[in-house]
Specification:
TIM Barrel, four-stranded antiparallel beta sheet, 16 strands, 24% helix, 19% strand, binds zinc ion
């Protein structure tokens, strides 16, 4: 553990500066993210929009401020999710997509139980942007440092990130909601088609709105209203809106559709940012960074900034698709692709691993992280490792598939 306390503190009362390095060099595991490939089929017309219905739900009172804050320099846990499965009977219907959903996703049933368990075990959500910051060292170099977090006594910090919240086209009809929308109350809701074919507008069937609701009901689960990091690709738009530019379908109608989608997603992004959510790049095309040429990496980055960064604003966070790292192994070496991304302003680079590993790079303004995958694979195969968060046996959705290829190790 290395510690560097700085004199100037810009993070107001909450954050003192301290750099730290956690152990665990083994960053890769069988648990590497295996999200679906990046077929860039961009020709499907945008789904039709349905205005939100009235809701009778009244907003919860604002969080009570916690007064007894204590400094914390220990490990910041980091779990990541994908969009949650709203209707398991559709996701687990025996189709070719079933195995991928079983491996990579949790169901609403499991997700709610995960939140309840983490809250019970005294975890508190913190904003990843508050965990690390830049400083200038004695040589005049800009480097990253770990901040000392100020937490309510007895609480343990945890970061959530969410990959691929785009409602990709292949997921349509497979038991997921379709998009996030703004309700008449000005809040974020989600809409989709339920198994009976009825349109649903709800806050109970999608990852973002379920967490929003949980924090409203349990304000002690979030430090200052922090929610999660939304890691977005761009090749099929964002958050259920087909905002991508398709050069093969550059008609006037396609441009108009795209402008409409962009206009519709903007208030959703705005409301998410107002309510503790923040964004990361997940590359434009869900590319495999290890295999991509430097030129390919650069083109992908510019396209993300043009089409997604222009909608979600600046971010210094990069969540690696497939967990594959820039230049092959940017934890221990620094190559041209990492230098390029740091030059664009990115500072925090997160992959997937067994533990919430972190390493501050000594030679460049960057910190390397690993996140732990909260998904069906680890529910089935990594119960012990996740026991500090939740017990897979208690939360496992009985609607998950059974039989060969769908065993559990507990
Ligand atoms: Zn992904």
């Amino acid at each position: 553990m290395k510690k560097t306390v700085t004199a100037f503190i810009l993070l107001i009362i909450c954050l003192l500066a301290a750099a730290s390095m956690t152990s665990c060099g083994d960053t890769q595991d069988a648990d590497v993210e295996t999200t679906p490939p990046s077929e860039t089929d961009e020709n499907t017309p945008p789904p039709s929009e349905t205005p939100p219905e009235d809701t009778t739900e009244t907003p919860a009172p604002p969080p009570t401020p916690e007064l007894n804050l204590v400094p914390y320099d220990g490990v910041v846990e980091h779990l990541f999710f994908h969009e949650v499965i709203a209707w398991p009977e559709l996701a687990f219907n025996g189709a070719y997509t079933q195995k991928g959903y079983d491996d990579n996703m949790v169901t609403v049933h499991e997700y709610v139980k995960i939140l309840e368990s983490l809250h019970r075990k005294n975890y508190i959500l913190v904003d990843l942007n508050d965990v690390w910051s830049e400083f200038i060292n004695e040589k005049g170099e800009r480097r990253m440092q770990r901040n000392t977090l100020m937490l309510p006594e007895g609480k343990k910090p945890i970061v959530f990130s969410y990959d691929d919240l785009s409602f990709y086209e292949y997921m349509t009809g497979d038991g997921f909601m379709e998009k996030y929308i703004i309700g008449d109350d000005g809040d974020v809701w989600a809409t989709g088609i339920d198994p009976k074919g009825n349109r649903v507008i709800s806050q109970d069937f999608a990852a973002i709105t379920i967490l929003d609701k949980f924090v409203r009901e349990n304000p002690g689960f979030s430090l200052g209203g922090a929610k999660g990091c939304i890691a977005l690709t761009g090749y099929q738009g964002i958050l259920g809106y087909r905002t991508q530019f398709d050069k093969d379908n550059d008609t006037q109608q396609a441009r108009l559709n795209r402008m409409t989608e962009i206009a519709r997603v903007r208030p959703v992004v705005q409301r998410l940012k107002e309510t503790g959510w923040y964004f990361a790049t997940h590359s434009y095309g869900h590319i495999n960074l290890e295999r991509m040429s430097l030129n390919g990496v650069m083109n992908d980055a510019h396209r993300w900034l043009d089409e997604v960064g222009s909608l979600v604003g600046e971010t210094k966070l990069f969540i690696y698709p497939f967990g594959s790292r820039l230049d092959g192994n940017d934890v221990w070496s620094t190559g041209p692709a990492l230098e390029f991304y740091v030059g664009l302003g990115f500072r925090v680079f997160a992959s997937v691993g067994r533990e919430p590993f972190s390493r501050i790079k000594p030679d460049i303004t960057a910190v390397m992280l690993d996140r732990m995958n909260s998904d069906g694979y680890t529910l089935r195969n990594r119960r012990e490792r996740f026991m500090r968060f939740y017990d897979a046996q208690e939360i496992f959705d009985p609607m998950r598939p059974t039989g060969p290829g769908y065993e559990v190790d507990w």
